[in-house]
Design brief:
Blueprint: H1 6-13, H2 19-27, H3 29-37, E1 50-52, E2 57-59, H4 62-70, H5 72-82, H6 88-95, H7 104-120
Antiparallel strand pairs: 1-2
């Protein structure tokens, strides 16, 4: 009849490297070389000669690589890599978790009390 969950298979099959892994490749040639060593050249397109570091993809020929670099998906990925990544603190703030241990209502009442004291003196 076919594959039961086709969407999951196609999503996991096309999994590429994450942006933080690619940034590490761009910052450290050692990290990139370590990744490339895990792949056998015989199994890669074009025997692993033409590789786009920003997109983490291998290409059959130099012409295909040059055409890819002129394309919109490559330019989008380069733009994503130039953006500053989110920190853990920003992610927790977006969810609603607060890292400060102060009561927000208490802080406002203390400020109001300080203003009253300053006004009287």
């Amino acid at each position: 009849m076919g594959v039961a969950n086709k969407r999951t298979m196609s999503k996991t099959r096309r999994k590429t490297r994450d942006l933080d892994q690619i940034k590490a490749d761009l910052l450290s040639p050692k990290h990139l070389a370590q990744f490339k060593e895990t792949k056998a050249p015989e199994d890669l397109p074009g025997l692993g000669k033409w590789y786009c570091t920003e997109c983490a993809k291998w290409y059959e020929s130099e012409v295909n690589l040059v055409m890819h670099r002129k394309g919109k998906p490559h330019k989008r990925r380069v733009k994503q890599l130039h953006e500053k990544p989110y920190t853990q603190k920003e992610a927790e703030a977006a969810v609603g978790l607060q890292t400060d241990n102060q009561d927000p209502y208490r802080a406002e009442s203390e400020k109001a009390a300080d203003n009253e004291i300053n006004m009287t003196t």
